[in-house]
């Protein structure tokens, strides 16, 4: 499979590796992007295990919780500019989307668009079309999450990041739980875990990670006899990166999130378990069109 200069550039952005290393990896991987990333990691060249998503769109991440119904919604609606994201009319539309998610429990975005909007006689899609016309920018309802039960939400940076966490607990009404819930949500916003616990990590993902770590250790010149021991040690480090409960707690690095949770549960005289979470980062993974200002000015002069 052939590859282009654009593929080399993309691999470089994903891994932080040099241009020639990326070119060699793509050649060795026969143009397969994922395989090339693995090869660079095995050689110890890739900057990070996690591929960082390119944040390249504006808009708003927003959360709303219906305390009476015990239902929460986290939504992301994208706009072309940050200016529009601060527009009151746009914010009202995002709020309507969240309230509609709570009320109608749609299966996906397509179903949400077809729903009658909360507090309106129109569908969400009709309201969206109206906002596009009045605001003058392309707007997209991108994604949402909806949890039922003891929900805590956290919005960072005025809507750049949003987190919603579902807890199974008998101490939700006690003083101290709300602060604990916010701590956990902020941890997720900052540390970006993929799973709640080690049990959730797919076995094939662990085996793949072990293969990469093993090849990495051998390429570092480590003796075969200690490679497996090293791999097990590095797998534990991997768990700390991807599993919320294994992560060092941001406010006290001596505690893991699991130990912090157990500590708070004991103090409040009950049980707390983290069921699941959703974390949205505004524009995550969307590649924004980059304007060449010099070219635009040159065209205008001509």
UniProtKB/TrEMBL annotation:
<dbReference type="InterPro" id="IPR001816">
    <property type="entry name" value="Transl_elong_EFTs/EF1B"/>
</dbReference>
<feature type="region of interest" description="Involved in Mg(2+) ion dislocation from EF-Tu">
    <location>
        <begin position="81"/>
        <end position="84"/>
    </location>
</feature>
<keyword id="KW-0648">Protein biosynthesis</keyword>
<feature type="domain" description="Translation elongation factor EFTs/EF1B dimerisation">
    <location>
        <begin position="72"/>
        <end position="284"/>
    </location>
</feature>
<dbReference type="Pfam" id="PF00889">
    <property type="entry name" value="EF_TS"/>
</dbReference>
<dbReference type="InterPro" id="IPR014039">
    <property type="entry name" value="Transl_elong_EFTs/EF1B_dimer"/>
</dbReference>
<dbReference type="InterPro" id="IPR018101">
    <property type="entry name" value="Transl_elong_Ts_CS"/>
</dbReference>
<comment type="function">
    <text>Associates with the EF-Tu.GDP complex and induces the exchange of GDP to GTP. It remains bound to the aminoacyl-tRNA.EF-Tu.GTP complex up to the GTP hydrolysis stage on the ribosome.</text>
</comment>
<dbReference type="GO" id="GO:0003746">
    <property type="term" value="F:translation elongation factor activity"/>
</dbReference>
<keyword id="KW-0251">Elongation factor</keyword>
<dbReference type="InterPro" id="IPR009060">
    <property type="entry name" value="UBA-like_sf"/>
</dbReference>
<dbReference type="InterPro" id="IPR036402">
    <property type="entry name" value="EF-Ts_dimer_sf"/>
</dbReference>
<keyword id="KW-0963">Cytoplasm</keyword>
<dbReference type="GO" id="GO:0005737">
    <property type="term" value="C:cytoplasm"/>
</dbReference>
<comment type="similarity">
    <text>Belongs to the EF-Ts family.</text>
</comment>
<protein>
    <recommendedName>
        <fullName>Elongation factor Ts</fullName>
    </recommendedName>
</protein>
